[in-house]
Design a protein that fits this description.
This protein has 208 residues and is an alpha/beta fold. The chain has one domain (3-207): 3 Solenoid (UDP N-Acetylglucosamine Acyltransferase, domain 1), CATH 2.160.10. 13% of the residues lie in helices and 33% in strands. It contains 1 helix and 21 strands. It has one helix at residues 3-30; strands at residues 35-36, 41-44, 52-54, 59-60, 65-69, 80-83, 88-89, 94-98, 101-104, 109-110, 115-117, 141-143, 148-149, 154-155, 160-161, 166-167, 172-173, 176-177, 181-185, 188-195, 198-201. It has a 9-stranded mixed β-sheet with strand order 1-4-7-10-13-16-19-20-21, with no helix packed on it. Strands 2-5-8-11-14-17 form a 6-stranded parallel β-sheet. The chain is globular. It starts with a helix and ends in a 7-residue tail after the last strand. Mean pLDDT is 89; it is low at 197-208.
């Protein structure tokens, strides 16, 4: 590579790092109670900062990657991110809030290396899988209050996780998860129902 090529590559890298720093700094300045690791990546349109709502005492840990775009040419559904009071986005979590809303409720945590995606691509014969329109019917990811999402989970567009639930590590969640239950698996299914401090295994009629 020529000297000019090296200079161009270095310039692009410097601009990218500067842009990431500015976007992250704006989020931290706007939300003084936010605990955010400096390695976390915030990717959003400069005018889309109002599409990001962060409560009090939220934590975003190392190498989380959060993308928020209110408007997209691939969907008429607005993108939005809502992190409730005390929510935790753990290390390596990927959130893509475009083409729908991603909400993580109060005192809920999404553990390391999980993924939450608000919208997926529509598929049609002969159409581009990468550049086509997004699904506007099944979109958004809603995580209720007091929810624990285990490490390495995938929260698919259209999923709704009720309050007081636990999602086992490595699960793929689609559809609706009833409040007060433990779900796990690929795809995730109900494992136990929680009642106070007691847990009832699925199908155990002796404890119904």
């Amino acid at each position: 590579m020529s000297v000019a090529g090296h200079s161009l590559a270095l310039g692009r890298e410097a601009r990218s790092r500067a842009a990431r720093w500015i976007l992250g700094h704006r989020i931290r300045a706007r939300h003084p109670t936010l605990i955010c690791d400096p390695t976390a990546i915030w990717d959003y349109g400069y005018r889309d900062i109002d599409a990001i709502q962060i409560g009090v005492g939220v934590s975003v840990l190392a190498h989380a990657n959060i993308t928020v775009h209110r408007y997209s040419p691939r969907s008429r559904v607005e993108g939005k991110l809502i992190l409730g009071d005390g929510a935790i986005v753990s290390a390596g979590v990927v959130i893509i809030a475009a083409g729908g809303v991603v909400r993580i409720g109060k005192n809920s945590a999404v553990a390391a290396n999980s993924v939450a995606v608000a919208a997926n691509h529509l598929y049609a014969p002969g159409a581009s899988h990468l550049h086509g329109a997004w699904d506007e019917e099944r979109c958004g990811v809603i995580v209720g209050d007091n929810v624990w999402v285990g490490a390495g989970c995938v929260l698919l567009p259209g999923c709704l996780i009720g309050d007081d639930t636990v999602i086992g590590a490595g699960s793929v969640v689609r559809g609706t998860v009833t409040p007060g239950e433990i779900w796990a698996g690929v795809p995730a299914r109900r494992i136990m129902t929680l009642t106070g401090f007691a847990a009832q295994p699925e199908g155990d009629a002796t404890k119904s």
